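fyi for ur records
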Amino acid sequence: NVYTSRLLKKLNTKYTKFIVIKVVGLYSYRLNTLLKIYNVFSSNLLRLASYNPFLLQEVTND
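which gave:
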């Protein structure tokens, strides 16, 4: 479990971008997560990050 400073859990960010470091098994991947979080995840817990901004939308890297 990941603990945040938000009072309401439903307002937490659901998804964020991580880079796949290594394919561990057929359906598991090692990600570049924080040190406190176990970094191997099953493929059914992951989604591909889409990059399709709207026309004239300014994109910033946070």
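The chain has a mean pLDDT of 78. thats all i got for now
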